[in-house]
Write a structure and sequence with these properties.
The structure is a single chain. By secondary structure, the protein is mainly alpha-helical. Helices cover about 60% and strands about 5% of the residues. The chain starts with 5 loop residues before the first strand and ends with a helix. The N terminus is likely disordered.
Length: about 140
């Protein structure tokens, strides 16, 4: 098992062009300039945003057959498919959640892989809880 939770096989590494194409894909899909504005949810967190994009690129370019997500091995194609469906809202949620975490995270890459994988299924609940607290909670 690789140190980031990706099991490597012995295929050659992807070329620089492939990595650049995936980087451009995610930067365009997520609309990075918009994300770095107050409306985009990641203002002042450029380094965090780009490190997440690099993790996405690394996952898309891996030659592994499986990746460890939340302690379980998932087929890499399933993980890649979920990552391709991530939106600006999902990424902003991950960045914000990471910024609010007060617990010590021992393996940040594994934590991010799991959080990114689960983001499409959890982000709506996060915002609903936030809204309910702010608008219906105790003043």
């Amino acid at each position: 098992m690789g140190w980031i939770g990706i099991v490597k096989n012995h295929n050659p590494e992807p070329d620089v062009d492939e990595r650049q194409r995936w980087r451009e894909y995610f930067e365009h899909k997520l609309n990075v300039p918009l994300m770095l504005t107050p409306e985009g949810g990641c203002e002042g967190r450029e380094k965090e945003l780009y490190s997440i994009i690099e993790l996405l690129v690394e996952t898309m370019c891996t030659n592994s057959d499986v990746v460890k997500i939340g302690g379980e091995y998932k087929p890499i194609r399933v993980v890649q498919s979920k990552f391709m469906k991530l939106t600006r809202d999902h990424i902003a949620y991950v960045v914000e959640s990471l910024g609010e975490t007060t617990s010590k995270i021992h393996n940040i890459r594994a934590y991010l892989l799991t959080t990114l994988y689960n983001a499409p299924d959890t982000w709506v609940h996060h915002w609903n809880a936030w809204f309910n607290h702010d608008y219906y909670g105790t003043p």
